[in-house]
Amino acid sequence: MHTLSQLTEIVKNFFAEEQFTGSPSLLYEPIAYTLADGGKRIRPVLLLAATEMFGGNIDTARYAAIGIETFHNFTLLHDDLMDRSPVRRGKPTVYRKWNENIAILSGDAMNILAWRYFLRIKHPNLHSILSTFEQTSMEICEGQQYDMDFESRNDVTIDEYMEMIRLKTAVLLGGALKIGALYANAPDDDIKHLYDFGIGIGLAFQLRDDLLDAYGDTATFGKQTGTDIRDNKKTYLFLRAIEKASPEQRKQLLHLFSTTPENADNKINEVLNIYAALDIRHEVEKQIEQLHKKAMESLNNIKRPDSDKQTLIEMAQKLLNRNI
Amino acid sequence: MHTLSQLTEIVKNFFAEEQFTGSPSLLYEPIAYTLADGGKRIRPVLLLAATEMFGGNIDTARYAAIGIETFHNFTLLHDDLMDRSPVRRGKPTVYRKWNENIAILSGDAMNILAWRYFLRIKHPNLHSILSTFEQTSMEICEGQQYDMDFESRNDVTIDEYMEMIRLKTAVLLGGALKIGALYANAPDDDIKHLYDFGIGIGLAFQLRDDLLDAYGDTATFGKQTGTDIRDNKKTYLFLRAIEKASPEQRKQLLHLFSTTPENADNKINEVLNIYAALDIRHEVEKQIEQLHKKAMESLNNIKRPDSDKQTLIEMAQKLLNRNI
Known about the structure:
The structure is a homodimer of 324-residue chains. Chain A is mainly alpha-helical and 324 residues long. In chain A, 73% of the residues lie in helices and 1% in strands. The longest helix of chain A is centred in the middle third of the chain and has 28 residues, at 188-215. The two termini of chain A are 20 Å apart. Chain A binds chain B through residues 22-24, 26-27, 78, 81-82, 101-102, 104-109, 111-113, 115-116, 119, 126-127, 130-131, 134, 137-138, 141-142, 144-146, 148-149, and chain B through 22-24, 26-27, 78, 81-82, 101-102, 104-109, 111-113, 115-116, 119, 126-127, 130-131, 134, 137-138, 141-142, 144-146, 148-149.
């Protein structure tokens, strides 16, 4: 069994050993730029941890680990373009560093590159692994579209929001874990529990992301803060605030979330003041803890000794505290 | 053996029998819009014709046929966005009918949907089929990037251009034929010849497309004419004109291809006048005939009776005359 930091190191080495070069350079350079040094490698680490939890050999899961991270980075690349996010991991996003067309096309190529890695897998469960990857990929597109739909809607419910982040964020953590478990020929019911664990920590992870977008420090978080408010995103914070708001506060919030000022600083501050008055930060933190607790129950249901679950427990803890 | 029009009908039925609906509707409606009624279905017809040529049963190749056409339409959807083409098959393109973000995301989903269809294939050669599809997909991205690179370059050679259209257009015809042949367990050397045939007719097809962009009739062709000239695309017509031009004509051409006037009508007419003076239309027609002849030689090398090759011969003829 490897620790979380050992697995992270192994995934980093997987990527360091890959070449993302090719011709034409304007197709491959953005791919290398996106994959080279960036990110926390959460999904491939989860995949390897799942393989190892069920007694599998992580070396055999190399290409699935690279493939799932490549796919994840493709979604970030296209999402950043669609969301007009200028910065990712402290660096200009691809559409800003190059241009929109290069972001579209190099993203398309990264999506295909992910399949290239998955097709390098040699495993009796290959078809189940590929189907899990395909279904997860499609669900993520659905989640992203719901996310965009919600920008122009004023009647989004918290249930709809949770379903959106399940699709957009949580299924990829669940899918990574499931693929890792398929590698190790885990029993079906354990795979189900592990997937549910992934969904739970994924939802908690996204709510933490919502919190950090409003309250994070740009330097450590590596992204601008307040962009969700600027872009009128109905995050959990907003939706819970609407539920708790007085008629006057609700009117003010709905008005603020219908504007798109050139400079959003005032708008962001006004929204944060309402959130503070409604104790939203604390509300969301409570919700994150509940999701975490439920995820740990799913993990407990898996018929493996606790010692085999240590890495995933550690990962869930890190995602909850979001110091990863 | 089915005729070309019978195969086209079969492919149409394949698509008529599929549902492209789902939620969220703004993700799936553009997919249904793109796939529902459009296009000549050349690639799936080639795939089925190849299967049948080697004695395979086309019903078993249904999902590969749908998958390859779905992928092709994904590339058109994203290309239309990148090229800012307003019309496709006489209808507004997706980014025009909806918006850019919806074009990006529904295209991504179509790419994944193509994989969904390919994963429905039950065949001992599945891995070869998937690898052929993956490699072809990546080459098409490379071709599209070269195409975009060429817009801002003034030193593109005819060899570079032919390599670009090989990647952007021809490999998908070759790939469709190869997948069809893999279905029918064709021998390796016959697959190679068939692939070369596909490349040849693909190159001829693209040169015909270049011609039609300049000389086609908007109503029958279903696209605006002169867009390649407007967008400063270094097509075969332009590159051959540059080779044959007098110093004065070359200077004029290079100047015209460095401008991007709001209204491109005058620019298009001036370029067409130079092409006419240099007999470019006839030059390109000669080149198309040579490519067609070479493709037919590749087809001749396949060790099957001529009667089995009739549908592909007919297809090559149609693509050459481009009344399909």
